[in-house]
From TrEMBL, chains A, B:
The gene is fttA. This is Transcription termination factor FttA. Zn(2+) 2 binds at residues 249-250, 355, 603. It is an enzyme of class 3 (hydrolase). It comes from Methanocorpusculum parvum. Residues 424-549 form the Beta-Casp domain. Homodimer. Interacts with RNA polymerase (RNAP), interacts with the Spt4-Spt5 complex. One of its GO terms (molecular function) is RNA binding. Pfam families: Beta-Casp, KH_TffA, Lactamase_B, RMMBL. Residues 578-636 are annotated as: Metallo-beta-lactamase C-terminus. Residues 95-162 form the K Homology domain. GO terms for biological process: DNA-templated transcription termination. NCBIfam families: arCOG00543. Residues 195-393 form the Metallo-beta-lactamase domain.
Length: 636, 636
């Protein structure tokens, strides 16, 4: 049956199931959801079981939306009029995907009103479903920009969601007994290397790409996944793209897909959408600054945002006629997810860990390791080598304090190259606590690159942070990210001032592998003096300047800047990585439920993926594969 | 540089290298060859080193052809006039691909003339290069038909060869250092099963399909390889198809490629081309008789013939800018070949054994096991299980004689289902010798199905037979295939006569796995009497009637014919297979030179490919893979 006919039938069925007097005027697939349009949204709202029953009977994610969604400008004025000024509204964002309006205010309680009376009032008057949220303590330019993109593309997005919904709910082609079913995974990058993550899942029915990142430190064709092989090309054959997290080694080439014909959805968490947008915009910026022609423009980043379908952890979502996707916390960075696929009505289940941290960090809970079903696990191996044991976070912090004390004590400056997202916040929290508890002297901690912006996003998405930190910020009203030691560097002049000031200080700057970004500026000025210190706290990929310096190069040719002679001290403090170490990785495989039949080790140097795979086989008797790039494995 | 410019340059270069007075008027790529057109073919013919030197300097296969190739009809008359009538000319075949004319005669010596004088005379008068051959003792309808196809499509074929030549010699796209090279093998069938052989080799530059067969006994989608996956589709992206041998599990779906857009070359031996044509035509026939819609028509078989580029064993041939192919004797059936690929100027070498016999049989020499280079070996595993030891050919013949004696002794008929190609001829030779040496009583040996035709082709291509047999036929002038015990069944009446005669006899009939063909007719009439006997001498695939009867089914439902009750005796005589047994397979891996880095075991039931692979690993410490269908492995 065609989708249109199915929708007509569904409308008849639903109208029979709803109470007398309630009219369902329209049923539409919009993205993965089935939207029921009605004149009586309140009847649905009152009878909560009604939606639940419908969802269960029809096996769909159901959303009820009023026929008349007030014009957003009128609604805006209405909300401003209804909510008392004391609420301190800072932003009103209309999400036309969901019919919800997000009201950010200094005092969200005032927006809600006594027993929710103000919210109800808003619904009655505007048709929109209001949600009140606390204004993030640090404003994020990126979130503002993303909301702006979504606002501008409202109509286009509606059209996109309906088209996408119809595609997801299309009829299966291969249902005959005659047809033999299969599920394949193709590796387009990230095998026996760290970088350019890209994996394809395909069945006779559908094709899904997981991640599409760059290879840090690589140039030319080697920097991107293999996107011109017939398995993936042309891109408009893809049903979906799934993004595990925002780091560029997973996200950098997603906008490129839109340049070359992709026009479908990108499933990811809202936090990843926003963080990835920030990192992609910066990626363009760095490319431009380094005189490399970027492979796409900000237009394609906007396309990425417009085509994102944001999912919360745990939402089970139809993404193709024979595939359901669920994202789960991966513990790695804000919004990072393990992508779990249920294929062919549960016939086969496969999880891609993306990048993983399987322990409690200052920021996040450990990665989820319980799944309803699981046959294949595709797991990262950054620290999968047999020697890759990291010290505990506590030991790491001790060591960090030690190195900082030493450097500050001799009047030097500490330069910490760090990914803007994840490690920087972890370091900030450690350093802030160290100063608060007098473990290290009080001094300025300068943040350069996108660290402040990334931090702002952490406070805008508190639901991803672990309970302790959330409590500290919202219950105890102490936001460590706002501590006065932190100072943003946002201009050339300011950077020069930091560099040439006499005062010892700590500088946390991007990029984390020193392959671009303001950290290079600091390096070239601070390298000369043996009083200064670089502390490496994260993984340095082969081919990056960071790796070279870490390995002991004392003369580093940095493109057109010439050669930097390095006299400053180099230290590596292990234990701050956002990646599980060998012990955590083995624990993860041991504790993951249910026990998978097969484990693929990826996202690691060749020797590490192979060693990790063979250790898993020896210890747990699970079939393992350490695939190469450009291979295809049959899962079913 | 474009191919056209390259050809112009080559013409200039060659004209500088040839002796004064010789003019090269044109240089063309035709298929894998570089053809030099000249008005002085005799000067080239005289100075044999000239072509050799040119070939070495230009690193091309060079053919010299006179500008004026006489009109074939005039040349025909001329040859008839020049050659004395006593030669007994039976066929004159002009091969426009090569400029050769094949003169088949009862007395080829008379065609050659004293010291080759008659041949020289023909060259002078016609421009064609004559070759004399002995008229095959049994005329082959198929060979006649194939020559007819080629004759009819002369102009089209010229156009095809030039187009194909330009494609082979096109410029490489990926030559930059930036580009990383790879070689991949994709399994489209024949993994963990016997049947539907189809493998794809691909590089950034080119794509080659090896075999494209059916799965005997399977129906619907499962009977053909996976031809609708993006790795292979669309077919016009293929650079070449290589056919290892004629059996339908390797050749049946090659004509289908032409129906769906393929328009390139099929590289194979001349014998395989002709045998495959016969088997494909029969495949259509059987499909029609069984009321199954055949997937293509005889038009596509004609396309297959027209697009064939015939290669002899050992010819090193450019088939793509970065691939050279060499076919080597596989010992399995007439014309069967191991396909050896040299990729990227020797960077990587991979051999597909096709079906293999690694011992001397009555018909052929053992498979070739020496290669200039070899990194990966893809080897068949039909009898790769740890118990798959066959008796020697001598033991097998003893046992065959025993069972025949027993049956004839009790007045019964012996029915031997056999592939038309290979096993039938092996049996004929054994039975004929048995009768000649009085090991079994003299009786009629009826041949039904295409066995006679297949036998005819064996005598038309004596160069593929082993030395003993060739000597027997041509030196000792005794052709065992013509022994008087053999009698062809070529009509319904004749078949009924054989079935209902009182005389004991032996019947060899197709198909070899009893999934169609006249053998079914014999079975349904002979099954009733316990005096009669079926002897299985070849592999019976899962799902075929042969397998069921062999397993002991005593009531066999045969489609619309109803159920056959089987009272006749069933015996399996092992040792006649055209496939290497476990011992031969292990020997092959042991003796193959050079030792490959990796072995893939295919063309065998799941347990056998796995067992064979793990035994190779244990015994020879070579990395092994037992791939599944639809997987891709990275070789480089
Ligand atoms: Zn990451
Ligand atoms: Zn990563
Ligand atoms: Zn065969
Ligand atoms: Zn075969
Ligand atoms: Zn053609």
């Amino acid at each position: 049956m065609q989708v249109e006919d199915r929708l007509k039938e569904l409308k008849v069925t639903i109208n029979k199931k709803v109470p007398r007097g309630v009219t369902v005027t329209d049923v539409e697939f919009e993205g993965p959801e089935m939207v029921i349009y009605t004149d009586d949204p309140k009847r649905f709202a009152e009878d909560h079981d009604l939606i639940k029953t419908l969802a269960r009977d029809l096996r769909k994610r159901i959303v009820v939306r009023p026929n008349i969604l007030g014009d957003t400008e009128e609604a805006y004025d209405m909300i401003k009029a209804v909510v008392p000024e004391t609420a301190g509204i800072t932003d009103i964002f209309f999400d036309t995907d969901t019919g919800e309006v997000l009201i950010e205010a200094e005092k969200p309680g005032v927006v809600i009103g006594k027993n929710g009376s103000t919210l109800r009032d808003i619904t009655m008057k505007t048709g929109w479903t209001p949600k009140a949220a606390r204004t993030p303590p640090i404003p994020s330019v990126t979130i503002k920009q993303v909301r702006q993109y979504l606002r501008e593309s409202r109509d286009e997005r509606k059209e996109f969601l309906r088209r996408c919904g119809k595609r997801i709910h299309r009829d299966s082609i291969y249902t005959g007994r005659d047809h033999d079913q299969w599920l394949r995974m193709t590796t387009l990058g990230c095998c026996r290397q760290v970088g350019r993550a890209a994996f394809l899942l395909s069945t006779p029915e559908s094709k899904v790409l997981i991640d599409c990142g760059e290879s840090p430190g690589a140039t030319g064709a080697a920097s991107s996944p293999y996107l011109n092989v017939p398995e993936i090309y042309p891109f408009n054959n893809l049903d979906a793209v799934v993004l595990t997290h925002a780091h560029l080694d997973h996200s950098a080439f997603i906008p490129l897909l839109f340049r070359y014909g992709y026009d479908g959805p990108v499933y990811t968490t809202p936090a990843t959408r926003d963080l990835a947008t920030m990192l992609q915009l910066d990626y363009l910026d760095v490319n431009n600054k380094e005189d490399r022609a970027p492979p796409y423009s900000s237009n394609e980043i906007r396309e990425f945002v417009k085509h994102t379908i944001a999912l919360g952890y745990g939402d089970v979502t139809d993404i193709a006629p024979d595939m359901k996707l669920t994202l789960h916390n991966a513990g790695h960075i804000l919004g990072s997810a393990i992508a779990h696929f249920n294929v062919g009505n549960g016939v086969y289940n496969v999880a891609f860990t993306g990048d993983l941290f399987y322990g409690k960090s200052r920021l996040f809970n450990p990665a989820v390791s319980q799944f309803p079903r699981l046959e294949s696990l595709i797991i990262e191996s950054t620290y999968g080598g047999s020697d890759d044991f990291s010290p505990s976070r506590v030991e790491a912090e001790e060591r960090l304090y030690e190195v900082i004390n030493e450097t500050l004590g001799r009047g030097g400056k500490v330069l910490i190259p760090a990914f803007a997202v994840g490690r920087s916040q972890e370091l900030m929290l450690a350093i802030e606590e160290g100063m608060r508890n007098n473990r290290i002297p009080k001094c300025k901690v300068y943040l350069d690159g996108m660290i402040k912006e990334a931090t702002a996003m952490h406070t805008a998405y508190p639901e991803y942070l672990n309970t302790d930190l959330r409590n500290l910020i919202f219950r105890d009203n102490y936001n460590p990210f706002l501590a006065e030691c932190f100072e943003q560097v946002d201009s050339y002049d300011k950077r020069q001032q930091v560099i040439f000031s006499e005062d010892p200080c700590v500088i946390i700057s991007t990029s984390g592998m020193m392959n671009g970004g303001p950290v290079i500026e600091y390096l070239s000025n601070l390298a000369e003096s043996p009083k200064n210190m670089i502390i490496f706290v994260g993984y340095q990929a082969e081919g990056t300047y960071g790796r070279r310096i870490q390995k002991g190069w004392r003369e580093v040719p940095i493109g057109k800047r010439g050669t930097i002679v390095i006299n400053m001290e180099i230290q590596t403090v292990e234990g701050f990585s956002g990646h599980a170490d060998r012990k955590q990785l083995m624990n993860y495989v041991q504790y993951v439920q249910p026990k998978p039949e097969r484990v693929f080790t990826i996202h690691g140097e060749e020797s590490k993926t192979i060693d990790f795979a063979s250790s898993i086989y020896k210890k747990f008797h699970i079939q393992t594969v350490s695939p190469q790039n450009l291979e295809t494995y049959r899962l079913v």
